[in-house]
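Homework help thread (please don't just give me the answer)

Our assignment gives two proteins as sequence + structure token strings and asks us to describe the second one. The first is just a warm-up. Here they are:
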Amino acid sequence: MRSAPPPRRSGKTSRRRVRPELGEISSRPPFALIRRDYNNVTTGTLRAVESAPPFSVDAVVTWVDGATERFRERLSRARAASATKPSPAAVATRRFRDLGLLPTLVEGLERHAPWLRRIHVITAGEPPPLPWSDKLRHVTHAEIFRHPTDLPTFHSSAIEANLAFIAELAEHFVYFNDDMFLMSPVSWSDFFDRQGRAHVFFESRRLFPPWARMLVERPSLHTRKLLTTVRAFARARPRTARAIGGRFGRFPRELHQPAPSRRSLLAGLWSDPAFGPLVRATSAMRFRDERALEIIYLQRLVALDTGLGVVARPPSHFELSLSARAEERAAALAEARRARPRLLCLHDNLPDDARIAREVSAELRSFFGDGACSAGPLEPTGDGLPDDVVRAKEQIAPAERASVTAHDGV
């Protein structure tokens, strides 16, 4: 006869670790912020994930057309008046090239992110041909720069330093370069959690791996700006800097993706004792400079430090490199169609050749127009959700899935 198991001792306490609730994380030390968090996309909140956001969210898009005569004249005058000669990378044609895809970008925002309250398109002054409305707004550099003497500018970080001063901008917004496109429906919860914390997207690759001899191998201007930013942050926020280094192994690379942002955080950088003078100096730099801060990267780091951001897995994305060789472009476009990403980002590696630029523009318009790489609203392909959430979506009955789609208007 089997004897009964001995009774448990009443004085013994369980050592099982309980995962903290979402609201507890922001009040804990920065080390607790450097973690992945999927509480807003658990299996029990699928319907909430696909619904309207609990707060207003805007989109901000920066755009430039370097082919106009007015732009070339301003650039020529600024170069002549500059006390220091800008580097070739700072004035390269690809920095200001327009491939005629801004209407495609805006159409993607309106179609695949209908939960956006407003879309602000920032330009140097020339309004691009778009159907402007109360939702789709044109904003000029002159309207947002705190110091008009910083204009004209040809420096993306200078523009980013002043984004917080867009009139009627929502506290929560997603920042897009003009080479970032939505390919299929996305949710606000891809960019923010329910507490309003901005999702921070990092690559698994290290920004400064131990084996890199970047200081003696002529790093790119972008990398030198990142190094300036990291050094400034590490001096001002050493505890969080150590936490990020422990979590990722030195500082991670930022993904070339839309950036979830907080208006109050960007505005607060100007008055921060450590960052304020550097932000002001960056705003005054008319051309890209290695002494400037990478404002969006700094925003991500400060968001983790203040609890206004949390590390999260990004939506599926594809980085499309534009080559001068037609066969290489065709292969890259075919790969993008097979990947069916939710986000697509372009990398302009084209030479200064108007004929090639026209060919690429036509190819891309055809690519975006055929819809061949768009994923379905509730059938994501590698959308960055945790595996348990993807499995839960697959187990939803067809009738219920249809009701969710109809209810949320996806």
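The one we have to describe:
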Amino acid sequence: MRLYDSLRRRIEEVVPVEPGHVRMYSCGPTVYRYAHLGNLRTFMLADLIRRALELEGLRVTQIMNITDVGHMTDESSPEAVDKMLLAVEDEGLTALQIAEKYTRAVFTDAERLGIRPADVTPKATEHIDEMIELTEALTAIDVNTGSFVGTRNLEETILKTNLEAVKEIAYQLRFRNLGGLIVIDFIDMERKSNREKVFTTLKEGLTKDKAKTHVLKMSELGLIEMTRKRTRENLNRLLSEPCFYCEGRGSLKAKRTICYEVLRDLERETNLTGQAPQVSVHVHPDIARVLKEEEQQSVIDLERRINRRVVISEKENLHIEQYEISS
């Protein structure tokens, strides 16, 4: 099967990452209202592609998300409101009841149109923890009482500590060139006037900073949120360099993932080249072991599809993610 690749803007052969098995993601409904014809057309197209893949003899696992939170009225505006909350106000139901009502409705509509349900239908609310983990990291600064512990006036001690911390924070932001979202957790102060004094002192301390900053007033919990536009690389990047092996990613592809890439490229390569009796692939020893043991059946299935023998050779000096294919 050949499909149009919108990223590369060309028609390409469909070659599964895992030989013989396609894992297919399709965009699902936002369940704060009934689905309209445009939504259902999208679901029908996904169903058509799935059926076509199955006709090619491929096993298909379809995943379709359900957006039951976080669909904003305007993604670019800080004043945007979650459409689910608007539906709650309009219909007098809870958010859970709204989501369940329109989820049932969209599945009923899909069934009437002959659209088969996806194998997995994860809801946004079921994966909030994962979303938080994937969110870009922020800088958090925590202030403690340090050397000022011991005076009789606790509020005065806390104020002095926070004011002393403000000077150091303003300096460290410049010295380390920290950027993005920064949250400063000051020690709680009961008096509003003291919270305003710390806020004003921080604003004054940031006037020496050439980078653009935006500071929000302190909350009753003692938190100040601010942003700072980084003008150059931060100190950590200046004093370190990316890992030579993982190239700074902090992780490597799983061995099985690399094996599937190898098998996929082997199939693509044999479709583009002549009918040589065999094709060879040089891989890292760890990848060779997985291909010959855990993924042996996948290699056998590939040989049957391309009608060639696949010769797997180990090459010590290859990066674990690298491989070489030759006919």
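TA reply:
I won't write it for you, but here's a hint about the kind of observation we're looking for: The two ends are 24 Å apart (CA to CA).
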